[in-house]
Amino acid sequence: LVLPLSSVFRAVGLIQRGMGAYARVEQALTLPAEPVEPTTPRCPGTAPAVRVVPREEPVLELRDVTFGYDPDRPVLRGVDLTVPYRRQTALVGRSGAGKSTVFALVARFYEPDSGALLFDGLPATGLTRAACRARIAVVDQNTHVVHGTLRDNITYAVPDAPEAEVRRVVELARLDDVVRRLPGGLSGMLGERGGTLSGGERQRVALARALLARPRLLLLDEPTSHLDAINESALARVMKDVAGECALLVIAHRLSTVQHADRIVVLEDGRAAACGTHEELLAVSPVYRELAAGQMLRPASGPLPAAGTAR
Ligand code: ATP
């Protein structure tokens, strides 16, 4: 009796797992297809492939962008946003203000209902989605670590990256400690789902992976939780360094990580309601003051804390 019963239980478990997997596959298969692009999108009078981009030009601009998932209920209403090269720009706002929607438009998962997106001064509508995405790297909250070595995880998208480049991003993402600690260093195994790393370290592995592609624009959705003070301060320092290499646009859920950003944009009611530094916004933006008060933040004083220093 025991043997047949245990076989039945095993079979039930298998069927349940299979049904879960089937639901996930079905979810992916029923995703709406991206709208078909014109075969040769081209800005009038420009040849995107050969255009030399002045380094000072904003890497990304949103001009008067209005967008709603349902066109009758706009999420963004006439948003203007400029993301300069070698600067850290942060997007803040209450939950549901439209921060992730800005990212979805920049990655061109959706097109604005009106207004324009410009990459390096070129209207996005004149570029293919592939050309836009080639300029961008995205690090979201779901940091994926695959079973393999630390190096495999960093070079996932650029497998033949030169050693010097790998070392550069390891340093930039402040992974030196992990390299020293891991038996085998860069060749050390990370284990299933990166189990040997903390949440903050996994985040920085994802950052290193993104930086290896040398993007013009890095979109970072800062993690909402599970970062201790040491990892939080490490992330703030990495963001500062990364902003020296590209344009950095961060969705900030906690203001402490972005209070040293060059510019902070406050989204409210679908509009860019205020823009400035932490100190300026504390003085002029009631929403920002409310967000800061909720997180018990005072005016930023002095430089960033030293790496590894809990505040
Ligand atoms: P949070 O800080 O909570 O992540 P957010 O500022 O990033 O919020 P969004 O995720 O951009 O806000 O959402 C803005 C609005 O758009 C919300 O009302 C949300 O319910 C709606 N929304 C977001 N994604 C979709 C979608 N795929 N389809 C329909 N509505 C959506």
TrEMBL record:
The keyword Nucleus does not apply. The lineage of its organism: Bacteria, Bacillati, Actinomycetota, Actinomycetes, Kitasatosporales. It is a multi-pass membrane protein. This is ABC transporter ATP-binding protein. Residues 60-294 form the ABC transporter domain. GO terms for molecular function: ATP binding. It is found in: Cell membrane. Its main location: membrane. Keywords: ATP-binding, Membrane, Nucleotide-binding, Transmembrane, Transmembrane helix.
